[in-house]
Amino acid sequence: MKPNPSNNKLFKVSRRDFVKIGALGSTGLFLGVPLGCKQDKNAFLTGREDAVFAPNVYITILGTGEVQLIAHRSEMGTGIRTSLPLVMADEMEADWTKVKIIQAVGDVKYGDQNTDGSYSVRMFYQPLRVAGATVKLMLMQAAAQEWQVDISECSAVNHEIVHSSGKSLGYGYLAEKAGALPIPEENEITLKDSKDFKFISKETVIYDLEDIVTGKAVYGLDVQIPDLKVAVIKRNPEAGAGIKSFNSDMATAIEGVSKVYKMESTAFPMGYNAPLGGIVVVANNTWTALKALDTVEVVWDKGINASYDSNAFMQQMQRSVQKEGQVKRQQGSATKALKEATKVIESDFLVPHLAHSPMETPCAVARCNADGTCEIWAPVQSPQWVRQAIAEALGIEESEVTINVTLLGSAFGRKSKPDFVVEAALISKEMNTPIKLLWTREDDIQHDFYHSNCAQHIKVGIDKNNKVTSWVHRTAFPSISGTANADAKGPSSDELCMGVLDMPFEIDNISCESLDAKAQIRIGWLRSVHNINHAFAIGSIVDQVAQAREMDPIDNMMDLLGSDRKIDFTALMEGFNNYNVKLEDYPYDTHRLKQVIQLVKEKSGWGKSLPEGKGMGFAAHRSFLTYVACVVEVEVDDNNNIKIPMVHFAIDCGVPVNPDRIRAQFEGGAAFGASLALKSEINVKNGAVIEDNFNNYLVARITDAPINTAVHFVENEEKPTGVGEPPVPPFIPALCNAIFMATGKRITRLPIKL
Amino acid sequence: MEKFTLNINDQKITIECAPDTPLLWALRDQLRLTGTKYGCGIAVCGSCTVHLDGTAIRSCSIPISAINDKAITTIEGVGKDRLHPVQKAWIAENVPQCGFCQSGQIMSAIALLEQNGNPSDADIEQAMSGNICRCGTYIRIRSAIKNAAKNNV
């Protein structure tokens, strides 16, 4: 679905598997090798403070009692740097105040580090529970040996092993002895019962909270190393196009400017690693670099996308979806059913390009050393991918590249792509000095990997018995893979599985179709990806269908979902992708979707009477394996100003690992959705992006975002699934449907213009 | 290059830089006060908010030469000895997600509460609408400000 250079498989935690995986040189979870000084399991326990017990790559216990837990996923605001360590801490019965979280460098030994696709918790919850429980068992074994008692008489309680007699030994004291023990087999490990959880499903504040509110937290641009120079780049407004000539006389005359030079461009489609190229200015500080850059005169060359016009492209896509496309899922005969229908509801839906515009622009610190090695400090979502990309760009081995991951000042998918870090490394090599590369906000908005613009047409047939009998959904959008592959003509089936092919309605006649659209600018994945477009269209047309059937929108939705069932999409089409996991492990369960809908109905006061100018709208959508139903309340005044006083989400994400952070993701997801629905739009003319900063690429401010957001959980013990992306898709149609109720105006194009 | 003596977080510090250097880059590059963030460079996002004689300003858009002897307070200055009540309110509400914009948000909130100890929703919206948060922590920002106000900042 998203290019992922690292091995994506789930791994089990056991020594056997480590040996197996380790032999393949792949993503072993366990090193299985105790680190530190020579240890003898028969030695008398001294409680030496220099002891180090490190039975796996994630957990180290020092003789002092400090527990070091590795955060191997990137922290971009989801709280993952806290939420995965707390899973380990819970199973190992650690005292959270004695836990130190250490951010991992990019290294395959940690397993998948590509922080993307809302799968950190989904993928690592179980393995990290096992990792923690293994450590606990080894500490218990060490204490039992020391006391010469049966292990059944020992238990772990808040950083100590306690004997039934009441005596106890601290984790630090036991570190030395535990470090000499063999690592237990997985079948010896017992996980906690959920009723005994100390941290899981409880509230744990983020590890960096105080550092953030005091300004001490370190993001990419805050990194300081000796002899740093600052680099900025002037890029061709058309991505991938080159440079005819440039004049840097004025720039080089400025005091403090080290060098102005041309970095070669890579022609479109350049992929995700290649720098766009341009004129690089290196100076002794940021302001000097920026001022100098401003004086550089460049005559740009034209590339293959010099005539790209996003408005004309949208019209072309909109025309294309009026006719049948490539049928990717078919049941019954939608054409026939539509002919026999007594009512046909149809509409086009248009979504523009969007930019990620994370609060912190792309930036990186790179130091190419004299010995050929390279060290990076950067806010990156996928440090292993960056490591590969840097090694390739510099022509060195991955083992010669170190990627230190800073905090990310948000990312939304932008910082998955290594391009900006490669730029920094190449400049450092060219200059033979450490470099801090700054992307200005203008760089960020004008040279992003944009969200696919998209045109859709949906046609729904209703028969004489008021039953929905046919569903035709056509979508056209440029594929993300078009950024790397000139042959990519349009949506891939993986991309269509984000909201088109995984449509859950129990309708007899279905045709899901895609139409070609070629990427003519860098396209990337943005928080919830194509679900943004497809949930908007489906959530909106379903509201129109409810109106046509004279049914309550929620009753209509329940009727469309039909029976409780686990939908076997693999039987319905070729190549179904269930967010890269098997359907049998994470089924599409209509019962779970209906449950969140029922819950949001109860909690939101759905159906209450509202004064004029107010409206309530509903939508529900499963994405990234998480079920979400959403009700939005709006107020629209006489000047068409839109206020969102209240949002209700009901969600089923399995076991909620850190509920406060889940609520935060939904609060933020609604605000993010408000940006996309009400404000944001990227327009391209002559291959160049028109918008360039937050004064014209508009995003939700405190005045636009929901005033309140309530999050209601379906309680169950299902496997946990992601929450970073799933809030966004249903929020947008729920808002549009609320606006319809308040004003009678049907929204079919984003951003909303009343 | 010129020398400027600045009054930053109750300290007098002399730096040498071009007179048109925005305060933001002087703070970050020369004084290593990196709690103040770059977000847009054109005074529309609020990430770089600091106080100048107690008033919230965008440090990306004021040159060093215009500051003279006015008192500059940055995020590092407000919580120097112990956490400021607004910082405490931010912690109590678990406001931050990625945290990048929060220095600026906190500086705007402190300036608001110093002028208006009991702000209405409209007052909060007006004072905080210059600060963008892409994570969308606005609900908690609103409640943190109200809580800080209740505790008589």
From TrEMBL, chain B:
Pfam families tied to this protein: Fer2, Fer2_2
Protein name as annotated: (2Fe-2S)-binding protein
PANTHER family registered for this protein in UniProt: BLR6218 PROTEIN, OXIDOREDUCTASE WITH IRON-SULFUR SUBUNIT
2Fe-2S ferredoxin-type domain mapped to chain residues: 2-78
Domain of life: Bacteria
Entry keywords, A to Z: 2Fe-2S, Iron, Iron-sulfur, Metal-binding, Oxidoreductase
SUPFAM superfamilies attached to this UniProt entry: 2Fe-2S ferredoxin-like (SSF54292), CO dehydrogenase ISP C-domain like (SSF47741)
InterPro entries assigned: 2Fe-2S-bd (IPR002888), 2Fe-2S-bd_dom_sf (IPR036884), 2Fe-2S_ferredoxin-like_sf (IPR036010), 2Fe-2S_ferredoxin-type (IPR001041), 2Fe2S_fd_BS (IPR006058), Beta-grasp_dom_sf (IPR012675), Diverse_Oxidoreductases (IPR051452)
